[in-house]
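Request: Have a read of the protein record below and say how the chain folds.
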Amino acid sequence: LEKIVIIGCGSAYHAALVGKRVIEKLCRIPCQVEIASEFRYSEPLIDEKTLAVFISQSGETADTLASLRLAKWCKAQVLSIVNVKGSAIASESENVIFTRAGREVAVATTKAYSAQLVSLYALAIFIAFNTGKITNEENDSLIKELEALPKKIKETIELSDENMEALAKTLYEKDDIFFIGRLSDYATASEGALKMKEISYKNCQTYPSGELKHGTISLIDEGTPVIAVVGDGRVFSKTLSNISECVARGARPIIITEDNKRDIIKNDYEIITVPGTIREFRSSLLVLPLQLLSYYTAKLCGCDIDRPKNLAKSVTVE
C-alpha cells in the first residue's frame, strides 16, 4: 500500500478522522479522509496501491455506496466497516469488517460509533504489524490495551453520568455552544457537537482550537459555553492557552480530559475526566461524556432523543 483513503458521512466521517491519526502513527502510510458526498463527485488520485476504507453503520448509505463503486472503478483495494450483514456496501466490498454492534435504536449513533473506532484501531494494528512497522511486543501491548477499553468505557460512563446531567442544566437554555480541540481531540469534539445538534437542536460550532483567533473567536460572548476536548499531551498547553483566550472574552469553559491531567490545569474550570489509556485509543473514552451531555441536554429540552426531527437512521438518498 502507498496510500489509505477513508470515506464516510456524519459520525462515520468523524471516526475516520480519528482513524487517520492512528493509522499514520502506527503504519507510517499516508492516510486521507473524505466526506462521501464530496468524494463521489471528485476525481480521486487512487489506484491499485490504494486501500479505500468505507464506513457505514447501515451499509446502505447512498453517498458511501456510490463512492465505493468509484473506488472500484479506479482499481483501488476496497474494505468496508459496516454493522449490518447483507447490506449493499458489505456485499459489494472485497473485504469487510463487521462491527457487530447489534441493533442501535436511536437515530444518533453512539455504540456503533464506538465500534467503528475500535475497528479502525484494530485495522491500524493489523497493517502496522504485517508491514513490520511495529514489533511483536508492541503488537501485543496494543492489543492488550485495546482489550481493556470495554472496562474503561463502563467506568467512564459510570463516573461521567451524574456530572454531565448536572452540566446539562447549565446548557439547555443556551442557544450557541462551541466545541474545540486539536488533532484527534478535534475529531472527538466534532462528534460531540454533532450529537448535540442532532438530538437537542442546539446551534453548535466545532473548530480546531488553534483556528479560533482566525476570526471565529469574535462570536464568543459573555457566558458562551465552550466545550474543550483536551486529551493529546503534545498540544495540551496550546489548547489550554486557547481556552484562556475564550475565557478572557467571557466564555464559560467545560474541559474533557484524562484523570492524570486534572492537576495540570491550574484554573478554576469545570473539568470532566476519563480514565487514562494510550494516545491512539483515547478518543473512545473522551467522546463518552459528550454523548451523555447531549442526551441530558436534549432530555431537558423535551426532545425525542431516539427519533430526532428531520433525521433517518439510514440515509439512502443523496
User: Anything to note?
Assistant: The chain has a mean pLDDT of 91.
